[in-house]
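Take a minute with the sequence and C-alpha cells given here and flag any C-alpha cell that looks odd. Thanks in advance.
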Amino acid sequence: MSSKFSEKSEELYDEACDAKHAGRPRCPVAHRNILQAARDLVAEVGFAGLTIEGVAARAGVGKTTIYRRWPNKSSLVLDAFFEDISPPAGFADTGNVREDIRRQMRKLVKELNGPTGCKIATLLANGQFDKDMAEAFRARWIEQRRAEARDVVKRGIAQGEIRRDVDPDVLVDALYGPIYFRLLSGHAPLTPAFADALTDLVLSGLDD
C-alpha cells in the first residue's frame, strides 16, 4: 500500500471518528497518540529534531490529521507538554504572607527538580528562537503564576507586611528570576535551602 493511500485512509478514519464523537474532541485515541508521540520524540531527538512527519509516523496517523489540530510543531509540543504537567499548586494562606511566599518558592523548586523542570527548560530555551512558542509559554505557564504571586504581594501590602511603595511586578521578578536562572544555567542546584535564602534576601527590608 502506498504511503499516499495510507495517509488518505487515515484521514477518512479520522473524519469518521470525528462524526462519531460529534461535540467532543476529534478522535480521542488519535489525539492521545499524537501527543504521546510528540513527548517521546522530544525526549529522543529534541525540539529541533522533531518533525510533524516523524510524529505522524510514530502516532500512526497522516500529517493532515495533525495539521487539522495544530498549525505547527510549536503548538503541538506545547499541548503535549502541558497535558502532562499538573496544574500549579496555589499559594498557601497561613495568615503570614512571607511564610506563604517561602512555601511557594519551595514548591516551585521541588517541581522544577523533577521531570517538569526538564520540560520547562526545553520550552524556555526553544522559545528564544520561536516567537509563537515563547508567547504561548508565557500565556500558559508564566502569566497564571505571576498573577497569583502579584495577588499575594498585594495582600501583603494591604496587611502591612510589605511596604506600600513596593512594585508587585518587580518583587515577583526578583523572587522567580533567580530560580529560572539556576534551572537554565545549571551552575548551582535548586534546593529548599536556596529557596529559603532567596526568600529571606528578597523580602528583607520590605516592612511597611
The chain has two domains: 3-83, 97-203. The first helix runs from residue 3 to 20. The mean pLDDT is 86. The domain at 3-83 is CATH 1.10.357.10 (Tetracycline Repressor; domain 2).
